[in-house]
Amino acid sequence: MKIIFATNNAHKLSEVQAVLGEGFELVTPRQCGVEEEIPETADTLEGNARQKARYLYERTGLDCFADDTGLEVEALGGAPGVHSARYATDGHDFAANNRLLLKNMEGVANRRARFRTAICLIEGGEEHLFEGIVEGHIIDHEAGSEGFGYDPLFTPEGFERTFAEMSAEEKNDISHRGRAVRRLVAYLQERNK
Ligand code: IMP
User: Fold this and answer.
1) What would the pLDDT profile of 99-151 be if each residue is shown by its tens digit?
2) Residue of 48, 71, 116, 154 to test ligand 1 pocket, by largest number of atoms within 8 Å of CB
3) 68 lines ligand 1 (CB under 6 A)
């Protein structure tokens, strides 16, 4: 089954494709002729996922899904949250975001944080929402070179290593996006029986 995933981020694409398995073929917006950046101007993760999925559905008329993820740090009142991509700058500057997060967490004892992913699927025009959460904490230096974004600063609960020190499979098994995508897959498999 072909389904459009609203991302041109190669890392995310391969993470999600690995969880979806062979029964589903992901198609990118670019492959459907949608070249422009898809707007995400809502003030919640769910709102952004819905906005991106709707945008693609209106342009292509095909079933599609979009995700939005935020890192929610307890001591920072849930920041960077929905602003995770543009925490330090206007662009997706992972290094600058990590530097700013480390600075804002200097001397902070409560390091609790979680990644949260919201997925919006549009199937035959109808919306379905799925969520995935992983709890953990923010360490005080960057560790590891796998993954992307805040991975070098985030240690999931029950582990001594950051996401950036894990293989893609290990991360997918427990990650926010892995969990949300498995819920999406369970739903799609049930529908396509
Ligand atoms: P997006 O909604 O998936 O594009 O995520 C927004 C921002 O959250 C990204 O630019 C990253 O900074 C961060 N992010 C999302 N997913 C992850 C992840 O799995 N690991 C680390 N950072 C992530």
Assistant:
1) 999 999 999 999 999 999 999 999 999 999 999 999 999 999 999 999 999 99
2) 71
3) yes
By C-alpha distance, which of 64, 60, 55 is closest to 37?
55
pLDDT at 10: 87
- Pairing of the two strands 126-138 and 80-81: unpaired
Cα separation, 148 vs 12, in Å, equals 9
Task: Give the domain range for residue 32.
Answer: 2-191
Ligand 1 atom closest to the CA of 40, numbered from 1:
2
Q: What is the CATH number of the domain that holds 160?
A: 3.90.950.10
Q: Which atom of ligand 1 is nearest to the CA of 48?
A: 2
Number of domains in the chain: 1
pTM recorded for the entire structure? 0.93
